[in-house]
Write a sequence for this structure.
């Protein structure tokens, strides 16, 4: 069991280091903690900054910010949109999904918005250690998914990266259906 966990953790870490962004219909940015006073956590800020850079490169015409209200309002999605607009993204290019409180819900509730848009391919932006599981949940919802890691430098030291990566391996092993999800045939 231990070898399996650490083997999967190695794969999670390696997968998350790869930049996989390609032209897509929508950039989906997964939420993270909002601090007291509606301030973006480091993770939330890094994810938005990465998505804005991809948007400015012309990889997608829209951004979908996914995340509900955690311990502190407003929703993660609202905080991300406000930050993206401050960074130069037009408000009309920003969509919100404000009900989710987990990666599975990010994918499920975002899928409703993406279907209304007629989207086919999405790029999911999150922290590197989170990307494999996030991709798998979006695949389960029927999307062709590329991934793009937000930078971790300056936010997480090696011990924290190890912890979060192993945590992701356990999360994937706990849900084998998610781990085995394949890309839809289009």
């Amino acid at each position: 069991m231990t070898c399996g966990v650490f083997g999967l953790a190695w794969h999670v870490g390696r997968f998350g280091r790869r930049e996989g962004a390609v032209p897509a219909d929508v950039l989906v940015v997964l939420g993270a903690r909002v601090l007291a006073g509606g301030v973006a956590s480091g993770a939330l800020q890094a994810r938005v900054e990465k998505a804005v850079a991809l948007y400015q490169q012309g990889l997608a015409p829209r951004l979908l910010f996914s995340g509900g209200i955690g311990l502190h309002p407003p929703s993660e999605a609202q905080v991300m949109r406000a930050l993206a607009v401050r960074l130069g993204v037009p408000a009309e290019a920003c969509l919100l999904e404000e009900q989710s409180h987990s990666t599975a819900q990010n994918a499920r509730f975002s899928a409703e918005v993406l279907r209304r848009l007629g989207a086919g391919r999405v790029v999911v932006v999150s922290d590197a250690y989170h990307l494999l599981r996030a991709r798998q949940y979006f695949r389960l919802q029927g999307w062709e998914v590329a991934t793009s890691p937000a930078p971790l430098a300056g936010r997480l030291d090696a011990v924290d990266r190890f912890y979060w990566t192993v945590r992701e391996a356990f999360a994937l092993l706990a849900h084998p259906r998610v781990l085995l999800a394949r890309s839809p045939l289009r």
Summary: The first helix runs from residue 2 to 17.
